[in-house]
Amino acid sequence: MTICREAVHHKPKSNYAYAFDETTVHVRLRTKHGDVDRCRLLHGDKFEWPESTELTPMERVHSDAHYDYWQLAVEPDNRRLCYAFLLETADEALWYTEWGFESRAENELPTAGTDRSLHYFEYPFLNPADVHEPPEWVSDAIFYQIFPERFANGDRELDPESVEAWGGRPTRESFFGGDLQGIIDNLDYLEDLGITALYLNPIFESSSNHKYNTADYRRIDPHFGDEETLRELVDAAHDRDIRVMLDAVFNHCGRQFAPFQDVVENGADSAYADWFHVHEFPIEFEPRPNYDTFGFEAYMPKLNTGNPEVKEYLFDVATYWIEEVGIDGWRLDVADEVDHQFWRELRREVKAVKPGAYILGEIWHDSRPWLRGDQFDAVMNYPFTYAVYDFLTNESIDGTEFADKISRFLVRYPEQVNQVLFNLLDSHDTPRLLHRCDGDKRSLRLALLLLFTYRGTPCLYYGDEVGMTGGDDPDCRQPMVWDRSEQDRELRAFVAELIELRSSLPALRGGTLRFVDEECHGDRVVYRRIADDGDEITVAINRGPDPVDVSLPTDARDRELLFQVGD
Amino acid sequence: MTICREAVHHKPKSNYAYAFDETTVHVRLRTKHGDVDRCRLLHGDKFEWPESTELTPMERVHSDAHYDYWQLAVEPDNRRLCYAFLLETADEALWYTEWGFESRAENELPTAGTDRSLHYFEYPFLNPADVHEPPEWVSDAIFYQIFPERFANGDRELDPESVEAWGGRPTRESFFGGDLQGIIDNLDYLEDLGITALYLNPIFESSSNHKYNTADYRRIDPHFGDEETLRELVDAAHDRDIRVMLDAVFNHCGRQFAPFQDVVENGADSAYADWFHVHEFPIEFEPRPNYDTFGFEAYMPKLNTGNPEVKEYLFDVATYWIEEVGIDGWRLDVADEVDHQFWRELRREVKAVKPGAYILGEIWHDSRPWLRGDQFDAVMNYPFTYAVYDFLTNESIDGTEFADKISRFLVRYPEQVNQVLFNLLDSHDTPRLLHRCDGDKRSLRLALLLLFTYRGTPCLYYGDEVGMTGGDDPDCRQPMVWDRSEQDRELRAFVAELIELRSSLPALRGGTLRFVDEECHGDRVVYRRIADDGDEITVAINRGPDPVDVSLPTDARDRELLFQVGD
User: Fold this and answer.
1) pLDDT tens digits for range A27-57
2) For residue A306, what is the nearest residue in chain B, using CA coordinates?
3) Beta-carbon separation of B386 and A13 below 8 A
4) If pLDDT is split at 50, 70 and 90, which confidence band does B155 have?
5) Within 10 Å of residue B546's Cβ, how many Cβ atoms?
6) SS3 for A530?
7) Which residue of A has its CA nearest to B130?
8) Which of 3.30.210.10, 3.30.470.10, 3.40.50.300, 3.20.20.80 is the CATH number of A136-203+308-508?
9) How far is B34 from B68, CA to CA, in rounded Å?
10) Between chains, do B374 and A344 touch, taking CB under 8 Å as contact?
């Protein structure tokens, strides 16, 4: 069998070759699964060729049903890299360059090399300005997502008129009186659980309970508190080393947003006529809005983020809350429907006032176009979420397929992005995890074990830790259960223990993840978390009802059972 | 045989799915060559699913040895697109989504669709700000590259002291006295040839004859003229509807550049210490420079384009010559070694003062990372150049392989980029085409025929049209042959005829290119240029010594022989 050319893939300046830091380039290669015995990288400086070249073995870091993925870290002497791949089987030696394939031996460089500057692959120059460096604190953080209207009511004077009694199942129109003071009042609870960062759903003035239809980006919703309350919350959180991330709804605003109201009133004559995408004036709401919206929601007019005035307004908002109140990041709502240029400029503005701010996009898909270092630090990792559902709750895939999916995800992004991906098992936009688990807390615990031992940054949705459940919106947004008699205290202790485990073990927060391929099948998945210093943790998961024997990696010498779910 | 999964490729927001204009998304798919009989795209609005969906056949637009490439233009009603591919053979129907493959029939949508927002592919929103719109004039232009020191001496008073007599073979240190007045004096010659745009190698003050080591970006080299001469040149060119593009050497400067001289003198104390990448102070030139350079050239210190002061300085330079003198574009030297952020900002600055300015990067490789609409309009198309050499001058590949290579290049970029790629057969950085052809003017003519009938923008290197030859630099930079008795006037007439042909036929300037696969083999290549209005031109090339019979496309009704090379 000759090597399958059609499966081979590499592309410079992508997730297949990127600047990991200011001195290191990561080079990856994809080949057909099981097809190639060995891959080596010929690399050097094109201005000192061939004297500077080396032929270095690449490591097979991941595999899935279709492909093997190889990786090598290279530190070029002069920050520029010229390279080719040598793929070998027992029968064949195949060079792969940008120009194509050549069957030649190790000591015969590809003829393409005679036009080296054209035909080899190149990482032309490692410019510091292009290095994607997400904030360091994020990979150590434990996030907790709060839907403010439903977390805790700390100030009854702010309650909306139609407030309902705490507890029970909300409709889409319910108000329960949750507010910022309620969060402040419960910071001890969160600190005790081990939380080190909060993600709050929108808190700016808005008529709805979810507040994704902003009326005023510069005013805290009066039912939640005011700027002073937010400042108190941020300060009190910071006192506990807890960071605070807010929700930036910049794709669209609310119908009450003053510039939109002005367009409703003045049509084409409005000074804000170009702040939106209006198809024709005057504005009409029925039967369908005659302006772009989120989905077809008339109450969420899409903002024209290509308009310099809109940009200036929103960038001011983004920096205002960082500079005035000290928040630590922005989660960007519907991030993939906004233009890239807007996000690039937002990043510059935000990082200029707070280099360590975390910029997190809400994108449910492969997000490579936003994760090149010029836009977001990370995205909400819903592909991980759904892979966990498929393996642990739907059981629609087995251990092999789960490892395949996750492996594919792990090579999608640069390593430094994998390190800060925002991993979650549920949110205000999904049914709760326990609902997905059909109430089975063993599955729930296994999913949580996966979350807290996976690469990236875990986020817990408020109340999951005490056994809250609920289907799709609005059911997943029930008021937090504070009555201890209604809380699952054992589950809470379990979550606290997982958080403690992660916090105490660098191998769970940094380093790499490798599946033990031969132990990923049927009901089981086994993977190793390997710290940069070599310290290693093996995680073995058995979703089935019966015990199974698992062969752990043979190089584990001083083994210690750190944690166990079930018997 | 089942469909080869490993060969199937698609990625949203790449050359496989991009905004072609403000209403159209181009969707492409790659499958294994000859593997799939039919591809269809299921597409619609995710907020009106499945009512809004259609299943539309894709066209197989290109093929190479490994793959078939399919394409479809879609105009989504609401500027957002949710989609999946249906691949079919006689034996198999296979759905392909972002989540993977599913063997299901046409009337059974993939199960992944139950989590549609996650599992289908998406082009989330077609934002006008993200549309890549290169200047319209470029695809109609005929460029002519001038190396100013060698084109014509129009003002003997400006000659360098060491000036040599016009003609003969230069060394790396030769000066022949070419200048801007020489270009002005010969605009009639260029207009008569059919040229509509000039690309000038660097003209700013510099000690070398090539002037890639800039001493002063704000001053025309005194041996070439002054700002007033440049203005005269640009005005005189514009009077003839000829545009002028200059060479921007922003990756590095020259040793005489004042800020660098300041660092040489004052070391770490210099106000310009951070304008370069100095490894340690004081500056040393031997045995190797202790600062980053182009290659290892001590006389070309690399600029720190991540430094805001450097950016401001260079952006001022870039806009100054547009605003003050009216130039129409910049060719960016060593563009791939400069950081992407610099180029993004440069684009904004340049387009703000002249939206129609052409921004052309010197990159010899696959240039996708620079051609997403945020950086360059196009790159110098050296891959095309070398494919032509391989087929017509080296004869190292046959017609099949040539068509394969070109097909691969044509799917690399969005169609609007293909439309303005800067196609060339030689330059100051390569041996001359006639040298490559070993003096064989039949090969030369076939190469020129290819150049002028290919997609994108052709550029002629000065003097090629009168039969100039020369090997690698400095030999390819000989003084222009003006003595008519030494000029190949027949060749010049041939080139003028080709230019006239291209200028008169929209199908050669716009539209698409399709190879006639069954007629691309051995010594021959046949391709069709198809205008948007359906008008069609077939180009048949036979590099061999003997006549061959070629089957033209059967749907050509009113055939007319437009042009012939040889008998």
Assistant:
1) 999 999 999 999 999 999 999 988 899 999 9
2) B129
3) no
4) very high
5) 6
6) strand
7) A339
8) 3.20.20.80
9) 7
10) yes
